[in-house]
Amino acid sequence: MTELLEPEAPVRRPIPLQAPQLPRWAPPVALFLSLAAAGLVGLLLGWGPAGIAVVAWVLFLVGFTGWAQAIEGRRKAVDRMFATLIWSTFVIAMVPLVSVTWEVVSKGHGIIGADFFANDMRGVLGETNIVTGEPGGIKHALVGTLMITLTATAMAVPVGVMAAIYLVEYGKRTRFARTITFLVDVMTGIPSIVAGLFAFSLLTLIFGAAYRSGFGGSVALAVIMVPIVVRATEEMLKLVPDELREASYALGVPKWRTIVKVVLPTAFGGIATGVTLAVARVAGETAPLLIIAGSTTVANWNVFEGRMMTLPVFIYSSVTTGGKYAAEQEARAWGAALVLVVIVMSLNLLARLLGKIFSPKTGR
Amino acid sequence: EGDSGDGGDAADLANLSGEVAGGGASSQEAAQLAWIAGFTTVAPEATVTYDPVGSGGGRESFISGAFAFAGSDSYLTDEEGELTSATERCGGEAPIQIPNYISPIAIIHNVEGVDDLNLSPEALAGIFAGKITKWDDPAIAATNEGVSLPSAAIDAVHRSDESGTTENFTDYLDAVAATQWDAGVVETWPEEYGGQGAQGTSGVVDAVTSGTNSIGYADASQAGDLAVANIGVGEEFVAPTPDAAAKILEVSPPAEGASDTALIFDLDHTTAEAGTYPIVLTSYLIACQTYSGDEAAAGELAKGYLSYIVSAEGQQFGADEAGSAPLSDELSSQVQDVVEGITVE
Amino acid sequence: MTDTTTDQPPRLDDSGSRATRAGDSIFSGLASAAGLTILLALAGVALFLVIEGAPAFTASGESAYGKDNIVVYVWPLLYGTLLAAVLAMVIVTPLAVGLALVISHYAPRRVGTYLGYLIDLLAAVPSVVYGLWGRVVLAPALLPLYLWLSDNLGWIPFFDGGESGPTHGRTIFTAGIVLAVMALPIVTAICREVFIQTPRIHEEAALALGATKWEMIRMTVFPYARSGVISAVLLGLGRALGETMAVAMVLSGAGIITIDLIGTQNPSTIAANIALNFGNASGSKINTLIFSGLVLFVVSFAVNFVGRWIASRGEVKG
Amino acid sequence: MAKSIDVSDVNIYYGDFLAVEGVNMSIRARSVTAFIGPSGCGKSTFLRSLNRMHEVIPGARVEGKIVVDAQDLYAPGVDPVAVRRQIGMVFQRPNPFPTMSIYDNVLAGNRLNSKKMKKSEADDIVEKSLRGANLWTEVKDRLGKPGMGLSGGQQQRLCIARAIAVEPQVLLMDEPCSALDPISTSAIEDLIHELKSEYTIVIVTHNMQQAARVSDETGFFNLKATGEPGHLVEFNPTAKMFANPDNAATEAYISGRFG
Amino acid sequence: MAKSIDVSDVNIYYGDFLAVEGVNMSIRARSVTAFIGPSGCGKSTFLRSLNRMHEVIPGARVEGKIVVDAQDLYAPGVDPVAVRRQIGMVFQRPNPFPTMSIYDNVLAGNRLNSKKMKKSEADDIVEKSLRGANLWTEVKDRLGKPGMGLSGGQQQRLCIARAIAVEPQVLLMDEPCSALDPISTSAIEDLIHELKSEYTIVIVTHNMQQAARVSDETGFFNLKATGEPGHLVEFNPTAKMFANPDNAATEAYISGRFG
Ligand SMILES: Nc1ncnc2c1ncn2[C@@H]1O[C@H](COP(=O)(O)OP(=O)(O)OP(=O)(O)O)[C@@H](O)[C@H]1O
Ligand SMILES: Nc1ncnc2c1ncn2[C@@H]1O[C@H](COP(=O)(O)OP(=O)(O)OP(=O)(O)O)[C@@H](O)[C@H]1O
Ligand SMILES: [Mg+2]
Ligand SMILES: [Mg+2]
Ligand SMILES: O=P([O-])([O-])[O-]
Known about the structure:
C: MetI-like fold; two-stranded parallel sheet; 73% helix; D: 10 helices; globular; transmembrane helix (chain A); phosphate transport (chain A); cell membrane (chain A)
């Protein structure tokens, strides 16, 4: 470049378009070589697989970058080095995902069967109920998770959707609306345990110190859900093109009917997705329930009275109780964890599916 | 009423139904779970819940009437007016207080090459006070001839949460080795003494199991396969067996305020009685002498449940399933009499 | 409709549309009420925590779990909370930026979308499951690493390991790693969002000048996304501060202050401490724990506040 | 049913920003009036003030008089919803309701106002409107299909059908062809020709040839400078405007010397 | 330094979609070549294939030969980064780097290649390029200010300065004036006139008057129908194209009968 800038050289010499390039097979070969070298040394010195992987990675990063530097020049080498680093983050991020999935499935699948879903833990010591001989199960926790989550959803969704409608359709530029939008954002960051403490403080002030019920858990979960629902709905309503609203206004349709008949149906897929994601988020919550919903060994269908077990709390108490049957409890905890993960992931999948199914076919 | 030798009339119990709520000391949780399960074999229609909310929470909820009975690691005193309040709650009659759960606190350890460990009270206190930091310290070696102690750092594990186990353990240390242990009797571990903090009994067991050259204290019922130390009592070293633990109540004097219906003790940790294990956690049941009105049905159930717990069958079931020490025969019959005395109007 | 076929001039005044007006005002009233509810809920959270937490100030001794007063009790927990969360962010930031670049700029677009889903799956794992995994699987697996660190890098105070060296894996470092895994999806998602929004015209300007991909990213994507990344990290920090169960299950902590990340003794966090002790607490101890929850609320509110503020400022500029 | 529109001294604001200033014109009934001018000169803004669509933008307002059929649209007590029912509008990008079928799209204006209609009556309106928009033969076999499934030009005609289904007096069109291909464009231009026998039509276009082809009268809007409000420079019969404009700026614009 | 470009049998794809088909042309050095045609006919697409910018869109690819200075741009081993250095590009919307000052914007391309530059050398390049883009006098007192602070037309000239600072052989411009006001437009048109003494310039425009004013040769692209690929209909000296085109479609387009 610099020689092109010489003032005495008005005729610019074209730089060659052809530049030496590493062959396409260079990255896999370099990777293989690094792995082989690290593997050999590692086996000799007795490193574990993790050590070998780390050393191979360092070798690849340094070696491959060096190779590129030698052949393609500095800029290309830097480019390749960062590409390697950036892709590495992906591999690193997959480690916990694969590990968690593997552990949950391998440790949890054994115990799962019809009994596991049909029985509760009443009278269960060790593996089985000492009276009936039936194995213990998670029926009570499933019932609790279902009831508490449903109740929370019933509270959070109307408030959340209406608030989003206010923000997008009515408030738009008012200071009040901007304050709410901002606080909703901040509210998404409220620690769940704080939501639990809030529900506890509120309800024990009203009903006395010993108050525990599923409803308390629902209140806490609703506090967590509302901002998620508001945000999701708000985003979706904003995505509804103003053109549609204007098309409706131009037909002489009043605003509220436009919202109900045009805007909401158009955004329905997105809202359903957001609500489902919010449900998925709270279905796995533990801390607030630990504080206000209590725990029990039998199924309780009444959210307003009596303690309720939920899947997350069941997992937690199973592993932390210890004692003679710690192993059996841990096995049930892994089983319940598998069930919980499947439920939450299915909800996430369902959310995407809903989004796909109900998304209006855009013209383009 | 009849022959109450094994805890009430089986036929009576079989007719019990409904629900009763109790709760309190978490030390009893495993045993309570066992008893609740065992109770379903004799009273299939009855539902009992036990909330392990802690001794203080249990007493509080008992006084407020939310619990029909409570489990507590310590007996009621009037230091904060609890005894008076509890008496009020029970219609002016003093509440009954009976020991129902006795469990040795085992000194669990995980030291390479060391199975049998004898610890003098002083050595034990030194280790947990952070004054003895190596396994081959002379204070330990002196009582363990022939054992090859590693020259490794001691990983002393304690409860990081507030705990009745810690209270009983430090009560013991304070009584027998006050020179080494000068933090007094505490429920929450004094951090300046160092060591690894672990949450809950199971946390301590986990930490000792997965640690190296580690030692900790935990309810013996949860010690699992870990090696347990023998503790110096007089001239001998005693292992934490249920029998050895149960003995301590026999040698301990009744506490101030004990009565026919309040079988409460101040444990004599300094005993030199042969075969007595001195580090013991004793937990009591607290209930009313009379249940009436609204509470009658729950009281009936509570009485049935309590009588099951203190029956020989119940105590044995607790020992089998939760590793507690069954009450000695003498104490057992006293306790059963107290429960029999509960009336329901 | 039916009457306009007659040639009468239709009326434009509003005598006929009172129902319309009423419908509009009822509906907008409902909507604003919902907005107000949110404000009230947030205020309620603060209010009730204050009501129930305030008594902890006057009580002392026993109620503060043996500490002289509430401040001495909460301070080490706050320290542990911040330490674990900051640690998590130190781990998460480079990872999330890299991942977001993979999704936004490196992977083919369709593949990128699926990789994004994969990362989002990390967010779908409930925290109690992370707790279980961290306690049973991760912590034991990390102990050898900690031993290696204290042997080889022990001169760095973070990896001192203490007198006896690391004896277990349930350290604040492990907690930080678990928190990092849990915060990764949200930080990645926000970074990805801002990276994707880098105006194409700027990216193409760089490419048209003969920049390599990395140079293009440095010239256009990073400057454009800077405030977005900062707010993403702050929001992740907010998450990590409040995460409860995973820490409660993984960390073997006590109320101490140390910068040793892998030693035997570790600080605990406010949230974990509440979860672990609440069940056993009664009377004024509950006030103590709720007060610590109030502290957590204030801190995480502040962090989220700043994070959102930076994010919204960035939006206006971009 | 078509009506003339008298505009006097109209100023149009976005908040504090004066976008269009001092417009006076008289739009004849049953004719096509075209607005042309460079980008940003306020054609769309002015058009939207003719059926009170302008004010749906927060902070936007209009000063002056716009009289249709002896009623001032901006007089107090006039309900904008009623105004919009009588003065229909078609937008630059076709915007059928994505959740509705073709059939429902056409009826949207009637249905959304919760009119109850007999099936036969509804069918009549749909057929009449689609015929009016020259779309009937193309879609009569798939009335139940989503409106978004049509091509751009068909969508635009669907929007016109939807607008005429409520039988307005006036039809406003803002660059109705600018997103369309030449064939669809010419279909719409033909339609405009037919519609003017029944409706008063006002159309904004950036295509001068289109203005010349479809309109009877043309208004030329311009900006004095960027940031200044737009204003009406010249309003004349289209033939005169393109052959022999009164104003030099009009001539410069039409001959392509700027814009 | 300026180079001619020979295009033979070029097909351009977005994934499976063939956007432009079978283009052959020969662009003369030191001249201005304009591409015109209706929206969507592939003008931008083709222009971007001339400096391998097309392929930055995922899935996009080019078939055929584009030969500059005896080198086929699409030959194996050719480094697209090097190609883009030699064939500069100016986009429709001005796109100065928002975080950089005017000075740094001009130098952005140079900085990539030579890490270290003497201050005086850098100053020279900046002045020369800004003078070349007719912007020097307007900004010389505020080189440290952000490039985004300039007006649209100035920003566009800044982008031109940035493009010529790396001394390319060819300058591609995609509707460089369509976002600008008349005065800025004419400044850019003047600049194009001056630049053609040193550069080969290819410009896409939707404004036929502009093509007539600035270009020496014109290529007319068209679509047979929507969804069909665009193709080059006619390529001729501008004077001939506007006076007497070879092709009927060209004439229809130029006379404004569609588009
Ligand atoms: N929603 C709005 N808020 C504020 N100003 C606006 C808004 N819409 C348009 N304007 C401004 O009003 C002026 C006129 O805009 P308008 O859209 O009416 O122009 P136009 O002639 O239709 O242009 P085009 O040919 O590009 O459609 C412009 O200066 C524009 O920036
Ligand atoms: N990123 C893309 N992906 C897929 N198809 C594209 C993309 N960009 C353009 N196309 C398609 O390629 C064809 C040619 O588009 P191009 O943008 O080159 O047209 P143009 O002549 O520049 O139009 P205009 O005058 O509107 O700029 C069009 O059919 C367009 O839809
Ligand atoms: Mg417009
Ligand atoms: Mg283009
Ligand atoms: O029984 P604990 O109080 O030690 O948990």
